[in-house]
Automatic annotation (TrEMBL):
It comes from Streptomyces argenteolus. This is DUF1697 domain-containing protein. Coiled coil: none annotated. It comes from the Bacteria. InterPro entries: DUF1697 (IPR012545). Pfam families: DUF1697.
Amino acid sequence: MSTMYAALLRGVNVSGRRRVPMPELREVLGELGHEDVATYLQSGNAVFSSASGDENSLAAELEQAIEARFGFPVDCLVRSAGYLAAVAGACPFPAAELEARQLHVTYFDKPVDAARFAALDAEAFRPEEFRLGERALYLYAPDGLGRSKLAVALGRPALTRGLVATSRNWNTVVKLVEMTRD
């Protein structure tokens, strides 16, 4: 029995660096034996089906294949359709009332404890806000991610040390849920 997954590649195709063309990413996934392969946008979002149920093994396999194909390492997170739907459904902000550019989800490779962010003075960044979810962080940035001072603070090495993290705007979050529905 196959499960649908999304592969979230971190930091590819940004400013012409670390180029991973989406047709070639689809080829890599197919060569790994995955089916129902599709990509979304140029920013490293792919969906596929696999009989394997281990997200971490799937991610490690994909990272190795990408480095062999393109000659540079790329951190990858692989998440099941069920997880993606649960993250979207648990959004603590009124997603339906917000513009997609105002809401982002950062996916982490492992659970993140609130204590990691305890030293951050969240009140100083209002009206921007963040909330933690299951291996995810929700960010509400009313003026968009590009102008978000909170996003910069949340991305500081002291807060992200030891984590693999990659962010997606709400449109992408919703689209990946749609694309991975069984």
